[in-house]
Amino acid sequence: MTDSFWKAAEPLIKITETHPFLVAMVDGTLNEENFKYYVIQDALYLKDFALGLRTLAKSSDISEADSKRLSEFAHGAEVAEMELHNSFFKK
Predict the structure, then answer these.
(1) To the nearest 10°, the Cα dihedral for 78, 84, 85, 88?
(2) C-alpha distances in angstroms, 33 versus 30, 39, 40, 80, 91?
(3) Over residues 72-85, mean pLDDT
(4) How far apart are CA 70 and CA 3, in angstroms?
(5) Domain boundaries in the chain?
(6) CA–CA separation, 43 vs 53, rounded Å?
(7) Residue 79: its pLDDT value, please?
(8) Mean pLDDT in the chain?
């Protein structure tokens, strides 16, 4: 099943991998101001994404195991990802 999902997504993955912003970020030619904007937007997204995961985790419609897993994902978004961003913000 996973293989069929990857195969279905392949055209979008190829387009994404050639997007000028991503290519410039990977090859080191991305303008610093554009990178700063990206990092700030990503940090804002992660904050809201973690909030969404925590909200779902509190839903009475899901199992305790799913609730725990969603809470773990939220924690990962808040801690692991934000540590990376905080290193950029200090610079």
Answers:
(1) 160
(2) 9, 10, 11, 24, 13
(3) 84
(4) 25
(5) 1-30, 31-91
(6) 15
(7) 86
(8) 90
**Would you report the helix, strand and coil content of the chain in percent, each value rounded to 5?**
85, 0, 15
Distance, in Å, from the CA atom of 87 to the CA atom of 91, rounded to the nearest integer, reads 7
- Cα within 13 Å of Cα(16), Cβ side: 5
C-alpha 78/C-alpha 46 separation (Å) is 7
Task: Compute the chain's Rg from CA coordinates.
Answer: 17
The residue written with tokens 């804002």 in the block is 44
CA-to-CA distance for 68 and 58, rounded, in angstroms? 9
